[in-house]
Every structure is written in C-alpha cells, then in structure tokens.
Amino acid sequence: ACSSSTQASVEAGMDGTATDRDVLEEKLHNPSASPISLPYEFLKDITCNFSTEQELGQGGYGVVYKGLLRSGQIIAVKKLFDSYLVKDDGFQKEVTNVMGMKHENIVRLVGYCAETRGEATKLPDGINVMAEIRKRLLCFEYLPNKSLDKYISVFGIPKFGLVRLIFEAEQYHASVYVCSEESSGLDWNKRYEIIKGICSGLHFLNRECHIVHLDLKPENILMDATMRPKIADFGLSKLLGAQKSQTIIHGSIAGSLGYMAPEYFRGVVSPQADIFSFGVVIIEIITGQKHDYPSSTALSLQHQHVNANNGGTSTEISVQQYIDNVLAKWRNVFQEEQKYTSPQTYTEQVKEFITIALECVHPDSARRPDICEVFERLTGEICCCRKMVLLSVQPLELRFHFKTPHVLGFSSMHLNNHTDDAVAFRIVTKGRDKYFPGPVHGLVLPRSIYTLRVAMLLPEEEDNRFTIKLESTIAGDQYKRPEAEGSSSADDYNCLFTEAKNMGRKVQQAKLLFTVAHEVSFFDDEHTVNLHEQ
C-alpha cells in the first residue's frame, strides 16, 4: 500500500484520472481489447509515485511497479530507463503493432504512455537546465506467480547438476557438477505443460508475428495464477533498438549469458537464436537446476566446463550418459509417486523432451530444428504455418540390390512438386557420404514430377538398414532457370538450405528408409508421404 502522504497525493489526483481508471479497468476485463494510451500522471497515481514499496522487479529495460486500480485489481507498470530515447511517433506505432498481439502464452499489453515533459535537470558540470524528458511506460496484465526462474532454482526436483552443453569434434558432451540435494516442487505434469506453453508462445512470436525474442530465459517467462507460462519482454528489442543493461554486450549485441546462441556473438540474428535459448530453458525445467555460467563478457564460445562451486567436482560425460542420468532421476520419482500410474510412459516423455532440448542447443544453427518442428514434436499439434506441402515422396523405402560388393546399387523415387515455385531438394547423407558417389540434390520445376535415381555403394554390414532425411525448400531466383538445375553444385545447395534455415524460411523434410535387398524386389508405389516442416 502507499504511504499516507503518497496516498493523499493519489487521492488528490483521482478526479482528473477517474475516466482513465475506468477505461483501463474495463480493458482488463476484455482480453481482446487493444492497448490504450495512458497519461503519465495517471500511472504515477496508481504506482504511488513509483515508490519502492510498489516495485515488483527490475529487468534489462526498466523497473516494474505494481499499479493498484480502484477496484482492487493490479496491473504491472514497466517504467523504461530514461536512456531509451525513443521518439513519440515511433514508440506508439511499434507498441501497437509489435506488442499488441494476443496469445494465451504471451503477456498481454493493456496500455502504454509516450509523453515528452519539460523537467529541471542538473548537468554533469552542476548547471541546472530545463530539458525535454521522454517518459516511456508499458502496462501489462499482472501475473501473481512471478517468473519461472523462481521455480527452477528453488523448488525444482530433481536437483542434480549444473549443466553446460558443448560441442567438440562433432560429438556432444555435457559438463555436470553433481550435487545430491533434492526438494519437492513442480511435478512432471506441470513441467510438461509449462514447456509446451512456452513452445506455443514462442511459435506464435517467431512464425505468426515474425518477432525474434533475443532474450528468452526463465526470468522473462512469467507465471499466471494457474502456473500457465507467458513470455514477456518479447517486443522490446525491436521497440527500443538499444542495448540492455545487466546483459552481455558485444558490439550491438545484447543478451543474457548462458542463453545466447553462439552465432549471436557474431551479430547473426535469426529465429534459430530463440531455439537455442528455448533448448537451455527446457533443460533447466527438466533438471530442476538453473545454469550457473560465468558472468564475464570474456566468456569464450569454446568454453567447455561449468564452474564447480561449493566444493563440487566437475566431470565430463557423453550426451547419452547425461540423458541416462536425467532419466534415472525421473524414473525414481515416477516409481515412488503413486499418481504416476505408468512410469514408463512418463519416462518416455522426459526422454523425448530432453532429446529435443539437446538438438535445440546445437552450436550450428543450421542443425537445430526450427520452431515448427519443435512445436509439433512437443505439442503433437500440426504447425499452423504449414500452408502447403512442397514435395511428396514415393516410395518411402528405397531398396538396393547388389550383385557383387564393388558394383553400385540403384534405386529410384519420385518427387512431386505441388507448388508454383521451383523447389530445391537434397538428401542429407550425414555420416554416410562415402556410400553415395553421385549427386543427391536437385531442382523440381513447378507442378512437375522429378524422378531421382540414387546410386549407392554396398554399405557396411551394420548399415544394411538406415534412415536418411530428404529436405526441400523454395529455390531462389538463381535456381529457377531449367538450365541451372545441372549447374549447381552440392555446395550451392548446402548454402541454399543453410540460408533458408538461418532466415526461418520453410524447410520441409521426409524420412526415407534405405535397405539392402537380398533379392530383386519392386517398389510399393501405393504409399505417399507429405514432407513435414523442419
């Protein structure tokens, strides 16, 4: 509550702002309402002149205060730091266009203030002058359960390690500081729903709003009264176009240490940076342990170990061992708690989620899944941005017959382009390049069928049956000429797909089964698959 003197000031200003209060309170009852412009004096009133008693927290862009309305309802008022000198016209436009979108997993903006006021200001040399000071404030729905980080680091179960994922010599590793503390808190079902909710909100931002968050972390994920996660601060990087305080700074880069994708240090911004951050968040939610990264800006991208604090011991384990440790901890929980009626089912959920998280934190952005693939795998829903299947593949299984070990085997498949654009494709032979001496990429012209004849060398015995991905994406202008199809090298296609993924463009994939046939067989042409967006 306000102090008595401050409260008197608030009441004195009630009459002039009563209409604003009524409008705002009405907006709070209408989730579909657009954000409204609010006077600065009104926001001073409801926050008790921005008193420290009303302070909810401080972030990279400003201080958040509790605003109390006459009805007793509360809103969160973010007072942006004065260093963000955003012009009035640009601020209002970006607020309404960028931050006015609505989603159940996005913190809802209900109002804003953009005023320029003349105030007496003392210059560094001690001279008092009258200066124009821009006031920038944002009003959001109030979420009583604060931010997700409060539940990860304090109430998480099971707590068993500080994890830093690294990548070395084409293999994942994890450095884990093992500790024995376990405490009760969020159960698996709640963690499961929180992860899915964050994913849904991030999918909405990246795909439907074309916004890259750039600072996704537990502190920017707020929890409502039912523990539903809502992403906050999602539009501020675009809105303010400035660096944050309390962040790692590198040139024009602003972000939070431990959640920044490696390419972000080089100034490369894409939706895949958010995927990396989301992967770290998933790991923290599942392990119940907040990461403990060094706070120095000199942190190397090749940093391979976390700091082992409190007398702990750091050990490097393989990713499979890491996954096994995670599953072992949760398996014990599922077996001990009666409410988990099928421990095996829950364990499989944990395995799928932690596997996805590890894929998300891959240091190569092109090798991370995009938000549509993550969304579909985590939620089981079809990505709404999947407007059209680029290619359908027939058959799904390619069988190769070898008469002698040193003679090539051949198999064919048909790629049907359903679009009015040329579609580039490639077979991703990662780890098995030696089996494929010929080209496994090409261009399918609009509304046409391409027959690809794949040549393969006899694989090693343990590789007689394996799965490979076929990727497709809309080709650029340089690929659309029929004569260009034969002139583009594998490197050209690799560059095309890397660029498409980095820029968040549609890249679809199909899984193909390659088998070594022991006798000549015919393809089953009755099975057709639609490529799923990656």
UniProtKB/TrEMBL annotation:
Ordered alphabetically, the record's keywords are: ATP-binding, Kinase, Nucleotide-binding, Serine/threonine-protein kinase, Transferase
Q: Which organism is it from?
A: Eragrostis curvula (weeping love grass)
Catalyses: L-seryl-[protein] + ATP = O-phospho-L-seryl-[protein] + ADP + H(+); L-threonyl-[protein] + ATP = O-phospho-L-threonyl-[protein] + ADP + H(+)
Q: Which domain of life is it from?
A: Eukaryota
- Every copy of the MSP domain together lies at 390-515
Tell me which residues bind ATP.
79
Note one Pfam family from the annotation.
Motile_Sperm
Q: Which SUPFAM superfamilies match?
A: PapD-like (SSF49354), Protein kinase-like (PK-like) (SSF56112)
Q: What is its EC number?
A: 2.7.11.1
Q: Write out the GO MF terms.
A: ATP binding; protein serine/threonine kinase activity
Location of the Protein kinase domain: 50-391
Q: What class of enzyme is it?
A: transferase
In its UniProt entry, what is this protein called? non-specific serine/threonine protein kinase
Q: Does the keyword Repeat apply?
A: no
